[in-house]
Amino acid sequence: MLYCTPMSNTTSSGGSSQPSRRTGTQPDIVFILADDLGYADLGCYGGRQADFGAVSPHLDALAAQGMRFTRGYANSPVCSPTRFALMTGRWQYRLRGAAEVPAQIGSRLFHLDGGSIHTYRRMIHHMDEGIGHVVRALRDAGRLDNALIVFTSDNGGERFSDNWPLVGGKMDLTEGGIRVPWIAHWPARVPAGKVSDQHCLTMDWTATLIDAAGASPAADYPLDGVSLLGVLTQVQPAFARRMHWRMNHRGQRALRDGRWKYLTVDGNEYLFDVEADERERANLAAREPDRLASQRQAWHAWNETLPPTPDDATVSLGYSVADMPQR
Ligand SMILES: [Ca+2]
Fold this sequence. Notes:
6-stranded mixed beta sheet; Alkaline Phosphatase, subunit A; single chain; 12 strands; 4-stranded antiparallel beta sheet; binds calcium ion; alpha/beta; globular
């Protein structure tokens, strides 16, 4: 998914024949949302080289010349809800039908009888080449300096993805299902070579892009996302915020609060120190009952601010353990 929004070519005023104001004003915005790309699929996130060489040299260059986030999350571990959140800048749970994906799709669509790591890395490489063409076109047009290029993924990695060191993938609220690559490149405003541990969600991009364009959200639809413009431009340090998820599928709930993560799956409760244990293997729920209780309460307090999940919300995985052994 690629949005290109030329926002700076209509800013001249007063009948002046001067070229439109560009530097320091509204940027061009290129928003690139990869599908099912895992946290460690790109070289700049620790991905391995393929037999043909670097898998993602253009994205790696954007990260090196811009800002790379290490705690950027998708609003959901599945496609459509994250896209709803991106399009509205709000919790997807506010939108009827976006709670989960009522998909009636057969496993035939997934081509489960094909694919390989080699093919998967080739696909990423082709995507990366296309992004390289976009960057080159902006540079050739003299518009790269004030172009905000954003790259992220709509959910955690699919069956051939590399999510290391995270556990789980698409459909899971463990880190591998929701923590994804986040890259921002904007030479005019974002210093090169920065790595941020800001906690952030897909819907924050919506707030950030509105902010970067100098616009305001509609008063009737206040945003749940928060602008990261100050973090991007280094005028503001990383700030604390809680991030929440919920999903009927397997009764999953998650709260990320600082270094802590509260998680439920299949009726089981977990508490992890995600900064010390990114793989969520050391369950501290029994050792820290008070913290577990306060995190559980915080999740419920958030949940009560949102519409309930519709009774008829369903999800189709498209395939099951009958098609593929569980990871
Ligand atoms: Ca997806």
